[in-house]
Predict the structure.
Amino acid sequence: MPVITGPHNNSDIFLYLSIIDADTIDVSDTTQQFGQIASPPLFKALIDTGAQKTMISANVIRSLNLTPRGKILVSGVGPMAHYHNGYLFHVAFIVPIMPSGQIVAAGVPPHIQVMVNIHKDVIYGAEIPSTGGLFDVLLGMDVLSSGLLVVQSGQFSFSY
């Protein structure tokens, strides 16, 4: 079971992940060899256990040239709700493959092999109205509930 770990600041948990256009890959086709796909672009994600659905920023939409697939009603704190464009995509977690004992010299950009773990479900997520440029993906319970999130002592881990 792959695990992503990192620090948190006792307020927010950020991690880097990829978003893949659902039209470009079919994870239900077991004949495809996903180990050979190129590493997709990384986006900063905010883990939000209070969000039901994963949402993406205009930056992700532009970067991947995603096409809207309808409208999704989005509500937050308070009585107001608005419709936002909805998109079909996959969430992919990128995990470095480091041989045991390998050390990367400081200041030297490493060329590290990675494993791309694509979440099996297609996500139908809305565009985030605004993130203030702090993150590009709001990772919601539609993805988080497929794994185990542990937050303690200034660290987090997500096993999936």
Notes: The chain has two helices and eleven strands.
